[in-house]
Specification:
322 residues; 8-stranded mixed β-sheet; 11 helices; 12 strands; binds adenosine-5'-triphosphate; binds magnesium ion
Length: 322
């Protein structure tokens, strides 16, 4: 097992209240696997990915749960272990490239740092020329033209698409084993979204990386991943091989999510699912989807559904299947 998340709870606290976001999330992946995570906005996808690198914001709290990466217990690890993992094992493409890039440093400085620390953590002290060589190759990998100008630019001087590519390049340097891609195309022009996703797909395959892809583009998740998880309001609703999930969704939420997704072919913009996510300050006791579920029964409002194993490739957390 490469990554094993069990019973993960993440809360965000503010002065007045606590938001109970992740509510016992599980996720398992083996080496070489590509895993998708889908779910409406606000369901906790970014929170989950950040937990893996232990880079959650200051106001977060993890009251329960374990995250095992290989044999490392991430939540119990010290900074040195975590730094080494972040430098050479797990790379993350952030949803917002501006938040990931430091606005006051040139691309060159940021890219060089990532390369330098990665090589240092592998026990190799690189020369300036070596670092530059690596940087140029990294820019090539993500098909960024005009290397010199890009390297000498500050992030704000680049177009959104160029920034995204710089960030992908940086993430890939650190992703020796596992790439976490959080909506890698949200901030870029629709016309090149596809191109960027294909690029990521190709690089992941070429390098034999494992990957987690979070995306609203269900078509892409379908094409690029082997297995998928459906997250709703901080709970895993369903997990299955991607083919099975899309062809035979079992959880009512999954079915609604898939059927309400915009379909380009029919120019249907999608209506979304009726209702909205619960308030994380006082989330529903039982199934968090119950208030919106067309099939909700009495017990759905009081008892949290257990994980039900349907077959070796399919798990659903819903009282309809218990
Ligand atoms: N630092 C924070 N402080 C308080 N609440 C937060 C913080 N970060 C996230 N949240 C809340 O946690 C919930 C889950 O957020 P998260 O960003 O993980 O969702 P997401 O599934 O990634 O959504 P999206 O699809 O829009 O990216 C949201 O209600 C969000 O407002
Ligand atoms: Mg997010």
């Amino acid at each position: 097992m490469l990554l094993e998340i069990e019973d993960l709870h993440v809360h965000y606290k503010s002065y007045w209240y606590v938001q109970k976001v992740l509510n016992g999330v599980w996720l398992r992946m083996s080496e070489g696997e590509r895993v998708g995570i889908i779910g409406e906005t606000g369901s906790g996808k970014t929170t989950l990915l950040k937990s893996v690198l232990k880079i959650l914001p200051q106001n977060s709290l993890i009251p329960r749960g374990t995250i095992k990466y290989k044999d490392v217990d991430i939540l119990k690890s010290g900074e040195a272990t975590l730094a080494s993992i972040r430098r050479k094992e797990i790379g993350m493409i952030f949803q917002d490239p501006m938040a990931a890039l430091n606005p006051v440093f040139k691309v060159k400085d940021q890219l060089h740092d990532v390369i330098k620390y990665k090589l240092l953590s592998e026990g190799h002290n690189p020369s300036k020329e070596e670092i530059r060589g690596h940087a140029l190759r990294a820019l090539d990998d993500v098909k960024l033209p005009d290397h010199d100008r890009v390297l000498e630019s500050y992030p704000f001087q680049l177009s959104g698409g160029m920034r995204q590519r710089v960030m992908i390049a940086m993430a890939l340097i650190s992703a020796g084993k596992l790439l976490l891609a959080d909506e890698p195309t949200t901030n870029i022009d629709v016309t090149i979204q596809d191109q960027i996703l294909r690029l990521i797909d190709r690089l992941v395959k070429e390098r034999g990386l494992s990957a987690i892809l979070v995306s609203h583009a269900l078509g892409m998740v379908r094409q690029m991943t082997d297995r998928s998880y459906v997250l709703y309001a901080g709970d895993v609703m369903e997990e299955a091989s991607t083919d099975e999930l899309f062809n035979h969704p079992m959880h009512p939420y999954t079915s609604l999510l898939i059927s309400s997704a915009p379909k380009i072919s029919t120019r249907d913009i999608g209506e979304g699912i009726r209702g909205k996510l619960p308030d994380y300050r006082s989330p529903p006791q039982g199934c968090r989807f119950a208030p919106r579920c067309p099939y909700a029964m009495e017990k759905c409002y009081t008892v949290k559904p257990k994980r039900t194993i349907v077959n070796s490739a399919h798990i659903v957390a819903c009282h309809l299947y218990e």
